[in-house]
Amino acid sequence: MLFYPLATKQYTVLFLPNSRVNLEPRVSCALHNSLPQAKNEKRQKLQGLDVLAIFPIPPSATSCTHLPLQGRRKGYIEFTRRTLATLSKSEGRTLFALNFTNEVNFMAQLWKGRFKKELAKETNDFNSSIKFDSRMFEEDIKGSIAHATMLGATGIIDKSESDKIVDGLNGILDDIKSGKLAIDMNAEDIHTFVEGELTARLGQTGKRLHTARSRNDQVALDIRMVLKKEIDEISEKIKGLIEVLCNKAEENKSVIMPGYTHLQRAQPITFGHHLMAYASMLLRDLDRLSDVKRRMNVLPLGSGALAGTTYPLDRNMVAELLGFDSVSSNSLDGVSDRDFCIELASALSLVMVHLSRFSEEIIMWCSWEFKFVELDDAFSTGSSIMPQKKNPDIAELVRGKSGRVFGDLTALLTVMKGIALAYNKDMQEDKEAIFDAVDTVKMCLNAFTPMIDTMTVLKDNMRNAAAKGFINATDCADYLVGKGLPFRDAYKATGELVALCIDKGLTLETLPIEEYKNVCDIFDEGVYEAINLEKCVNDRLVEGGPSVSSIENQIKKAREIIDDALKTAETKKKEALLEVKEESIKTKNELDKEIKDRRSEIQRNERRVEQKE
Hints:
The chain has 20 helices and 13 strands. The longest helix is centred in the C-terminal third of the chain and has 65 residues, at about 550-610. Helices cover about 55% and strands about 10% of the residues.
C-alpha cells in the first residue's frame, strides 16, 4: 500500500495487487475521469511502482461516491508500469484515488467481537506491535503451517481445509519474500495481518486457522523460533571472529609484548597469547549461547491463552514439524515464560563485555602512548579540524554500544519482575529489547571482525615496551631461587636491583654483573640468559601459558571446537534435508494412493451405472 500526503490527516492510497482492505472504511472516491487528465498530476508519483490496481468505474459512480471495500473487489484489472502509457486507450477504464483519513482502521482486531466502539487511534498506536513484530512474519507463518497441518491430521478441522490453509500460508510467505505483498503497518500485530490476509484469500476457510490457539501461545512460539535462528547467526559470526583471532595469534605467536596488571607492565607474554585470551572468552560465549538455545527449544504452542484447550491437539507432532525438542509441561508457564529472552540478553551482554574490553585495548594500542597496532584506513575515521588524527571509532562505538545491550537486559528483568501469572501486555516489551540486543551484537561483530583481521601489528614497538618495563624481574628472582636462595630473599634482592636500574637509567639486561654481585654474590653471568625475554616466555611451558608451543596448542583446541560445531551444524542440516526428502516421498506416495483410490471409486461407480442400465 502506498501513501501520498494531501492534507493534514488525509492521504491518497493506490492499491497494489496484493493489498487488502478488510473493513468497510469511510472512503471517498475522487474519480479521475481519464488518464490523460490525471497524468500531469499523478504520473511522477507513480514512478517506481511495478504494478497498479486499476478499478473499473461503477456505472452509478459520481465524484463523491462512497464505496465499501472488502478484500479484493471483483472486476478490477492489474496493469504493469510498462502498459501505463497505453491505459488511456482502454475504453471504459479509469484511474482513481481513494482518499481517507488516518483515523480509519484498515484491519479488524482479532478480539473485536466483544466491543461496541471503534478503537481510538491513540489506543491503536499505543497498543500496536506490528512495527517491531513484523520481522517475525516467516516464523509466524511457519508456526501457523505446522498448526494447520496438525489440525487437519487430528481431524479438528477437515483435511481439505487444512491443505488449503497450508497452501494459502505458503503463498503469503512467498509473496512477502518476493515483495509482491507488503505488510500492512495498520494491522495490530503480525498475527492479525497474516490471518487477515489468509481470510481475504480463502474466505471462511481462513478463519479456521486460529482454532485451538491463542495469540498468547502463538507469540511465545514465534519469538522462540526467531531467537533460535538469531542465536545460530550470532554464533556463526563469533566463530568467524575466533578464526580471525586464531590466524592473527599464529602469525604473532613469537612477538614479545608486555603483559599488564593494574595497567602496569608486569610479565612478558606474546601478542598471540594475548589474542587467544579473547578467543577463550568468545568460546565461552558460544557455549553459553548453545546452552540458552537448548533451554529455549521447548514448544509453548498448545498452552492456549493460559489453560490449554479442550481440542485433542497433537503437540508433539507440531514440535517435531518445527524442530523443538519437547513441549512445555505447564500451560501457565508456557505462555508467560520469558526466561529465554533474559538468558539470551545476559549471554549477549557478556559477548559485549568481551568485545568492549578488547575495544578498550585496541583504543589504547592505537594511541601514540602505546602504538602497538595500526588500524586499516578502511576501519578508521579522521577529525574535521585536526588533519593528523586517525581515530579508532569502530572500537569506541563497540565499547559504547555495550551499555545499550546491558540496558536491554535490565529492561527485560524489570518488565518481568512483577508480573503475576499468566500473560500480561507488559510482555509485549520483550521483543523490542531482545531484538535490539540481537541486532546490536550482530552489527558490532560485523564491523569488529574485519577491523581485527586487517590491523597491522607493530612488533618492534611491542618488543621495545617489553624491554623497558622490568617485566623479567620475576625471572631474575626465579634464577636466584634456582641457586638455592629462598624466594622471599630472592624477591628482596631483585627489588633492590630494579631500584638501582631506575636510579642509573638502565635495564636488568644492561646492568653490569658487578652491580648484581654487590646486591647478591650468588649472581653470575648466567643471569643474562635467564632474563632474556624470549627465554622468559618460552620457558613457561605450563598449559595455557605464553610459550610458542602452548599458544599453538590453544589455537589447535579453539579450531577443533569451531570445526566440531560446524560439523554438527552440517550434520543437522543434512538430517533436516533428509527428513524433508522423506516427507516429500511420503506425501507423493499418499497422493498416488489417493489418486489410485479415486480412480477405483470412479470405475466402481461406472460399473454400477452400467449394471442399472
